[in-house]
Automatic annotation (TrEMBL):
Protein EC: 2.7.13.3
Localization: Cell membrane
Organism name: Kineothrix sedimenti
GO molecular function per UniProt: protein histidine kinase activity
Domain HAMP: 308-360
InterPro entries from the UniProt entry: Bact_2-comp_sensor_kinase (IPR050640), HAMP_dom (IPR003660), HATPase_C_sf (IPR036890), HATPase_dom (IPR003594), Sig_transdc_His_kin_internal (IPR010559)
PANTHER family referenced in this protein's UniProt entry, alphabetically: SENSOR HISTIDINE KINASE YPDA (PTHR34220), SENSOR PROTEIN KINASE HPTS (PTHR34220:SF11)
Keywords for the protein's UniProt record, in alphabetical order: ATP-binding, Cell membrane, Coiled coil, Kinase, Membrane, Nucleotide-binding, Phosphoprotein, Transferase, Transmembrane, Transmembrane helix, Two-component regulatory system
Gene3D superfamilies to which the protein is assigned, alphabetical: 6.10.340.10, Histidine kinase-like ATPase, C-terminal domain (3.30.565.10)
Domain of life, per lineage: Bacteria
One Pfam family per UniProt: His_kinase
Primary localisation category: membrane
Enzyme class, UniProt record, top EC level: transferase
UniProt-recorded name of the protein: Sensor histidine kinase
Length: 590
């Protein structure tokens, strides 16, 4: 469990604020909203369904009871006739004339009316017999007049003593407005001493039954049917002037009760209610959508506002911290809010101000130290210059002196002129840099003076590639290597020697090459000098040997920030070659 909790926390730490707020919105607003509404709606619908089921069952029972009670009244009416001896004898007696029948009929009506009723407002009674001596009319008819009737054929075909029959008389009986009939027909066969067929028919009032079911004001539609024939209902389908309607199959039946009533399978259908919760929701669907949108939109809007409150200021704070990598510390000008983020922004500004104060202090100390280092280095360079100049001028002047003593020629004037050129370049230290073109002129003047000293023993060749003339070098850099070639190479060799000076550019680097065919060095000397050139420093210069070369190397390293590379090749008795490689982006152009 602890591992799962740590995993969830680590995952949440990886999400940005916007995603975290969206998770809160979904988990704490949307999901509870839908879950709660769905649960409440399900409970309401389930409760309503259960309540409606019980209500529909009660309605069906009430309708069944009402129909049963009405028909039971009609059955009771038939019973009074069924067991009445006087009525039975009246129907079975043969009358000699119509007058005799009429007299018996009057006596019977007086006797029967004292015991029971021939009919009420909701039912009427008619008796039939196969006695041809009676006269049709009133409540008595010959059976022959009913043999073609639908109800009589149904009774004969059923084989039962009593049936219930629903039928439509149509236009065959224009004397009545009520064309839908409900009749209870019963055989009068209680007394077995007569062979005559006798029947009683109770005609129930159709409109009375319809009014009963309508007046009950049921909250749901109720259909009383035989198979798919609708006998009557409380929502129409009960027009007594038209034939019975039938179920279409599209009715939404919620509950059905069925029982057999005197040979008829009666179906009581209770339709699903229309005024349900789901129907109310559908009827007010725009309002439901509006409320749902409000419940979703308002929390989302609040989440959006909170997200902007967080992310905008956090983004501004993050950008401020990003500028630290660019070595730029800036205060946040507009601090918004008094919450934790606003407090963090204020603390950031306080940190920036403190850091700037510390930086100023540190930079000031560093600049003072750098100025001291530069002053020290300049003093050391001036000391080096003072070491080089006397040494160099001594050799030149000695050459001029010896030549003047031996030759006593006007060439001395040319030598002095070249010496003046060298001296002007040598003593002018207002700038430590000189273009390669001026440095080559200095080298040519120096080599011409050396030719006076060595005569035919020295020759030289200078080659500078186009475009390299404008690069700047520390003054007296290249001439120092040429001087070293003359002093340590040519001077110690009796045979004629050559000095080559080459400057060229290749692959974004400037190459300076000084080669001589002088005395050369052995392998140990080459290795020692090359190591000193590569690791030159002020301490190295304090040594006496090759001070000029080490000084030139140090100055090149200083102006190129250590990017200058040196390569030395030499062989005893053959000569020496020094190759200097400097990236062009580390050099100045004049």
């Amino acid at each position: 469990m602890a591992r799962l909790w740590n995993y969830i926390q680590n995952r949440m730490n990886d999400f940005n604020v916007k995603k975290k707020l969206m998770i809160v919105y979904v988990c704490c607003v949307l999901l509870p909203l839908f879950a709660t509404d769905s649960a409440v709606l399900a409970i309401l619908l389930q409760g309503e369904s259960r309540e409606q089921g019980l209500l529909m069952k009660n309605i069906a029972s009430a309708v069944q009871f009402d129909l049963s009670y009405t028909l039971e009244e009609a059955v009771n009416m038939t019973k009074s006739i069924y067991v009445n001896r006087t009525v039975n004898d009246f129907l079975g007696k043969e009358y000699e004339s119509g007058f005799d029948y009429y007299a018996a009929n009057q006596e019977l009506l007086k006797a029967v009316f004292s015991e029971s009723s021939w009919g009420t407002g909701s039912a009427s009674m008619v008796l039939f017999t196969d006695n041809e001596t009676i006269v049709n009319g009133g409540h008595f008819y010959r059976l022959s007049s009913a043999e073609e009737e639908e109800w009589y054929r149904k009774l004969k075909d059923s084989g039962q003593d009593m049936i219930l029959h629903f039928y439509y008389v149509g236009d065959d009986n224009p004397s009545t407005n009520t064309k839908r009939r409900i009749s209870l027909v019963r055989k009068l066969n209680y007394f077995k001493d007569s062979d005559r067929e006798k029947l009683v028919r109770i005609d129930l009032d159709y409109n009375t039954l319809v009014r009963k079911i309508t007046n009950m004001k049921y909250s749901m539609a109720v259909y009383v049917c035989i198979d798919d024939k609708i006998l009557f209902s409380n929502d129409g389908h009960s027009s007594y002037t038209q034939n019975f309607e039938h179920l279409t199959g599209k009715e939404k039946i919620g509950y059905e009760s069925q029982w057999n009533l005197y040979g008829e399978d009666i179906r009581i259908l209770v339709m699903q209610p229309t005024n349900t919760i789901s129907r109310q929701i559908w009827n007010h669907f725009p309002l439901v959508l509006f409320l749902l949108a409000i419940n979703i939109a308002l929390p989302w809007l609040l989440t959006y506002i909170i997200n902007n409150s967080f992310t905008s200021r956090l983004r501004e704070l993050s950008q401020a911290f990003d500028e630290v990598e660019a070595e730029s510390l800036k205060e946040i000008k507009d601090i918004k809010g008094k919450d934790e983020i606003g407090s963090l922004m204020k603390n950031y500004n306080r940190m920036v101000r403190r850091s700037q104060e510390l930086i100023k202090t540190v930079y000031k100390d560093r600049l003072e130290r750098q100025e001291m280092d530069i002053s020290r280095q300049n003093a050391e360079l001036l000391a080096l210059h003072s070491q080089i100049n006397p040494h160099f001028l001594f050799n030149v002047l000695e050459s001029i002196r010896m030549h003047s003593i031996l030759k006593k020629e006007e060439e001395t004037a040319g030598m002095i002129e070249r010496l003046a050129t060298l001296e002007r370049q040598n003593v002018n230290w207002t700038s430590d840099f000189v273009s390669i073109e001026d440095e080559i002129k200095f080298i040519e003047a120096y080599l011409e003076l050396q030719k006076y000293r060595f005569g035919e023993r020295i020759s030289y060749e200078i080659a500078i590639a186009p475009g390299c003339e404008n690069y700047s070098l520390p003054k007296l850099t290249l001439v120092t290597f040429v001087e070293n070639a003359c002093v340590h190479g040519v001077e110690n060799k009796a045979s004629a020697c050559w000095i080559y000076v080459r400057v060229f550019e290749k692959e974004d680097s400037l190459y300076l090459e000084v080669e001589d065919t002088g005395e050369g060095m052995d392998e140990g000397q080459v290795k020692d000098l090359e190591e000193k050139m590569g690791s030159c420093s002020i301490e190295t210069i304090k040594e006496n040997e090759h001070v000029g070369i080490i000084n030139a190397c140090l100055r090149l390293k200083m102006v190129t920030e250590g990017k200058a590379q040196f390569n030395l090749e030499s062989e005893k008795g053959i000569g020496t070659c020094i190759l200097i490689k400097v990236p062009v982006d580390a050099l100045k152009r004049s």
